[in-house]
Design brief:
Blueprint lengths: L20 H23 L10 H6 L8 H23 L8 H11 L2 H13 L5 E8 L4 E8 L9 E8 L6 H4 L3 H12 L14 H14 L7 H15 L2
Antiparallel strand pairs: 1-2, 1-3
Helix pairs in contact: 1-3, 4-9, 5-7, 8-9
Length: about 240
């Protein structure tokens, strides 16, 4: 099974004036396609890995029996394919607001505006190429803002991606040149209010979270002061599970 470039659910000009059609087309058909092609190229050496989803390859990357050079290729090009596949979904104009996510963001960061400020500041600090993510730490179920270099994927370090921003220059340079902050501000206007998660969840997706919370409630005694965050997490996962 070869990995394929995902089809967008919207036209390349659907995000204008914030992201121009030429950038979208080049980003999707050239940059993302290159990640897919090179991922498939390295997997040709390893027939046993060819049927595995890219998220599975990335989450278990350290344990794969491949050469160090090929592991680096899988990290870069598998990560590029995975990250971009999520990115296109986050930008879909047909997405609907996710009220449970906004409530959890407010509970974690104080307000949506404060979260946006912290996220934007973090994205500005990425040196060179990389991504900024709102993610959930699978160790404690807390939301965090995390910068990652190059095409490193959140699931490689035990994080569940929720919202991701590509700050590689190829994502914005035709329109914004070196003005990354203008690109970030435009991206928020596309994202509008926090949209529902993509229906195609990664390995650490909403269904896993749903059953994880059920397990935690059944196996652990939760202190009354800690129940509210767990309940927010539970209902957020429940909402995603039935999308």
């Amino acid at each position: 099974m070869q990995h394929k470039l995902p089809t967008l659910n919207y036209a390349y000009n659907a995000l204008e004036p914030y992201i121009d059609a030429q950038t979208m087309e080049l980003h999707h058909t050239k940059h993302h396609q290159t990640y897919v092609d090179k991922l498939n190229g390295v997997l040709e050496k390893y027939p046993s890995l060819q049927g595995k989803p890219v998220e599975e390859l990335l989450a278990g990357l350290d344990a794969l029996s491949v050469s160090d050079e090929d592991k680096k290729m899988l990290r870069n090009h598998g990560g590029g394919h995975y990250n971009h596949s999520l990115f296109w979904q986050y930008l879909d104009p047909k997405n609907k607001p996710d009220e449970m996510l906004k409530k959890e963001i407010t509970a974690t960061f104080g307000s949506v505006d404060e979260f946006k400020k912290q996220f934007s500041d973090s994205a500005l600090k990425v040196f060179g190429s990389g991504w900024t993510w709102l993610a959930r730490d699978n160790k404690n179920s807390k939301l965090i803002i995390q910068n990652l270099p190059n095409q490193d994927a959140p699931i490689m370090i035990g994080l569940e991606p929720i919202i991701g921003l590509d700050v590689w220059e190829h994502a914005y340079y035709l329109k914004y040149q070196n003005k990354r902050m203008e690109y970030i501000e435009a991206w928020w206007k596309i994202l509008k209010h926090f949209y529902s998660r993509p229906k195609r969840s990664p390995v650490h997706g909403a269904r896993m979270n749903f059953f994880l919370i059920i397990f935690k409630f059944s196996k652990q005694k939760i202190h009354p002061r800690k129940r509210e965050p767990y309940l927010l997490r539970f209902f957020y996962s429940f909402n995603c599970f039935y999308q």
